[in-house]
Fold this sequence. Notes:
Distance between the termini of chain A: 73 Å
Order of helices and strands of chain A: HHHHHHHHHHH
Number of strands of chain A: 0
Mean pLDDT of chain A: 90
Largest sheet of chain A: none
Oligomer: homodimer
CATH architecture of the largest domain in chain A: Orthogonal Bundle
Strand content of chain A: under 5%
CATH topology of the largest domain in chain A: Tetracycline Repressor, domain 2
Helix content of chain A: over 70%
Amino acid sequence: MTIPRAAKTLRRTRIQEEKEEQILEAALDVFSANGFRGSTIDQIAEVAGMSKPNLLYYFRTKEAMHRALIDRVLYTWLEPLRAFDAEGNPEEEIRSYIRRKLEMARDFPRESRLFANEVLQGAPHIEDELKGPLKELVDEKAEVIRAWAKSGKIVKCDPYHLIFSIWSTTQHYADFDVQVRAVLGQEHAGEGRFEDAARFLEQLFIGGLRPNGLES
Amino acid sequence: MTIPRAAKTLRRTRIQEEKEEQILEAALDVFSANGFRGSTIDQIAEVAGMSKPNLLYYFRTKEAMHRALIDRVLYTWLEPLRAFDAEGNPEEEIRSYIRRKLEMARDFPRESRLFANEVLQGAPHIEDELKGPLKELVDEKAEVIRAWAKSGKIVKCDPYHLIFSIWSTTQHYADFDVQVRAVLGQEHAGEGRFEDAARFLEQLFIGGLRPNGLES
DNA sequence: TGTAATGTTTACCAATCGGTCAAATTATCC
DNA sequence: GGATAATTTGACCGATTGGTAAACATTACA
């Protein structure tokens, strides 16, 4: 008797691994560029170089593909925040967090846009991840920042909004890439904008959070 | 002979004004929540409370509706940046620009998401606006900021990335609203997050841009 | 090498998509 | 009030959507 879906088998064959990899790679391309509703299985099939029913042999529905993609990407995406170290030097931790997030915006813009599309449209498929794992991780790191502020290592500030501001400024270069390029024009055509951004953001955050500023 | 499309008549009737208003209001709802490709004329028709052919009587295509909506909203959306005054006090100008942008994120989140969706998906419908009017406006204001930095009124920094960082941090509260809510949790359920954000961002930018900092 | 499980494809389905058409209804103005 | 223009709608169209059924091809393994 034929088992109808590969996903149901316990042991995964070599072909399964390869094809699922291929499909998710194509799905990342399409979903990140068009959002969930704006993407079609046919598009993904074409990018993946296989027939539509063949995709649906590995993932029963469009939703299942999207879900698998989110699951695969989310952990990696939160890695920089997870690396945030309570024991480290605050200034250096923030600086390297910004740098890491900017590198991810440069090297993995599709992943950034995948989440941006999802959140922008109300996060219908990742609500649980936001309220669960994400919130817990942010709560934990916010506590670290709060302790730094309390002990005077950085200026007193709302740790949540600090994290939001680092997220937004760095991911901006992935999510709003076409706008950034359009405004900067072709004179800044190269990848130098990421280095410029890194310089500016480090200056902004390090300067803005320095405890011994001129005003509280 | 019946003129096939209302848009072609020169004088606009009262009904035309009202209905086009109704339609664009509904279109803003739907496009901002689902993006262009993810939105359907039927959805917009339902929100607008009229039949689909009736929508298409006022706007010949889905694209035409989207275009009209963008045209109507774009000017207003850029108003805060336009108000940026070269003659004013730098610190106060930046502070009030942040405040205005945050107010817009709070009061007009749909407009923010409309553009975010569009830019995120490669700006297929507003490329010209980005490279034209937007770039020119930003170029002009960047020159103002550069002058401030040169005369020592604020720290030396890349004016374009400064503008990007204000855009991203403020619009974040509209575009990524569900994420912000999820992370802050229900204990911060009210609208207080906008005031908290304003406090944090003013502190960050004013502190980060102050010229007489401890290091260059 | 045979055979059972796995993988792939062609043909197809009902639902929905953007959009049209002609007929019906309503508003405007003399 | 009647003619004429403006507005509204139900029925419909071809294309595309997500997804299925079943025949066919390939692989793994005894």
